[in-house]
């Protein structure tokens, strides 16, 4: 289900947490909420920000793709090498994955192809969000908020891909007593380590 768009490349074997995440997503079922992740980052002034984004697909073994509007504040806040963390809460399997990493810089043909692929994979109602006025700006009474944008709609310049390369993953299982928690770090070859919940 979450691998709807073919992954462009694989960068080695899957780390041990990927099958666990896939299994939890399968137990969660086909609800749209199964693809929602909370993104935590720091604004330029040092204050925290949390936003909900939609998981689109994996890009290789340890990077995932999210979409955003380049006109939004988060786009600028996530430029460069600022660290970020994602929290993927899955109520049915009663677990949460905490995913820490950095945005991967993209450019040129690789970025263009990925953007085109993601744009075409969106539903007409999904594309419509990028036809709305700039996020966070004052609301204008006559501003257009289209409900759909068809397949022939050109990809807007502010349609932006956030590709996040993960460096640390934690799984908290909210069942049993005590609850169980483990982590994996890219720096140690994704070796599993059990830690206190």
UniProtKB/TrEMBL annotation:
Supply the SUPFAM superfamilies for this chain: FMN-binding split barrel (SSF50475)
The record's listing under Gene3D superfamilies reads:
Electron Transport, Fmn-binding Protein, Chain A (2.30.110.10)
Give start-end of the signal peptide.
none
Superkingdom per UniProt: Bacteria
Instruction: Specify the Pyridoxamine 5'-phosphate oxidase Alr4036 family FMN-binding domain's residue ranges.
Output: 15-102
Q: Name one Pfam family in it.
A: Pyridox_oxase_2
The identity of this protein, by name, is: Pyridoxamine 5'-phosphate oxidase
Q: What is the lineage of its organism?
A: Bacteria, Bacillati, Cyanobacteriota, Cyanophyceae, Synechococcales
